[in-house]
């Protein structure tokens, strides 16, 4: 599988410009993809809920934190607070988030492709490529950029100077 090859290569030796490349591709992906047409992350993988998330959202809903937790959340095998059910109960039929302004930090940051130090979260990107079409787009472009065979000047009979590929 091409992406397995890509991630093996990137993890072995992350390119110096990895953050810059991923951030540009992130911008490009989200110019093309509208989360309101998708919501796959909200349907298939819920966020982890921090103490602050639980306090903020329960207050927003006018509930005691313990009542909110009992109604919507559970503690998983890693001792993290997660949703009891998926799709997320706050996802509307129109793919809108019913608690958008106070949503969990993990929801605000997903799919994490605009974070710095991408070399530290390559495993997350690999996993999210199967969930998020924007990450799938980013990974596809990265395969083109980082796995493309570049013939040497001797093989191609050409000089290496000249316009660079714009990817
Ligand atoms: S899976 Fe990706 S594209 Fe889809 S809603 Fe979530 S962040 Fe947006
Ligand atoms: S809280 Fe909102 S953004 Fe987060 S998973 Fe639920 S619907 Fe999606």
Beta percentage is under 5%
User: How would a crystallographer describe the biggest sheet?
Assistant: 2 strands, antiparallel
The secondary-structure class comes to mainly alpha
**Distance between the first and last residues' Cα:** 21 Å
Give unreliable regions as ranges.
Answer: 152-167
Topology:
Layout: H1 2-12, H2 18-32, H3 40-44, H4 51-60, H5 65-72, E1 73-75, E2 81-83, H6 105-109, H7 122-128, H8 133-146, H9 153-156
Antiparallel strand pairs: 1-2
The site of one iron/sulfur cluster has 12 residues, from α3 and α8.
Please characterize this protein's 3D structure.
It is a single chain. The chain has 167 residues and is mainly alpha-helical. It folds into two domains: 15-44 and 110-146, no CATH class; 48-102, no CATH class. Helices cover 47% and strands 4% of the residues. A two-stranded antiparallel sheet has the order 1-2. The longest helix has 15 residues, at 18-32. The chain is elongated and about 60 Å long. Residues 42, 46-47, 88, 90-91, 97, 99, 103-104, 107 line the site of one iron/sulfur cluster (SF4).
């Amino acid at each position: 599988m091409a992406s397995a090859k890509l991630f093996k290569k990137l993890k072995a030796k992350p390119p110096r410009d990895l953050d810059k490349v991923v951030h540009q591709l992130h911008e490009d992906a989200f110019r093309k993809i509208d989360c309101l047409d998708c919501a796959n992350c909200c349907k298939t993988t819920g966020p982890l809920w921090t103490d602050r998330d639980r306090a903020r959202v329960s207050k927003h809903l006018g509930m005691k934190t313990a009542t909110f937790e009992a109604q919507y959340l559970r503690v998983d095998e890693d001792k993290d607070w997660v949703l009891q059910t998926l799709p997320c109960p706050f996802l509307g039929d129109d793919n809108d988030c019913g608690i958008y302004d106070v949503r969990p930090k993990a929801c605000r940051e997903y799919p994490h492709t605009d974070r710095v130090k991408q070399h530290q979260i390559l495993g997350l990107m690999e996993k999210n490529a199967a969930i998020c079409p924007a990450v799938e787009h980013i990974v596809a472009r990265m395969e083109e950029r980082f796995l493309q065979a570049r013939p040497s000047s001797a093989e191609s009979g050409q000089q290496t100077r000249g316009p660079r590929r714009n990817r």
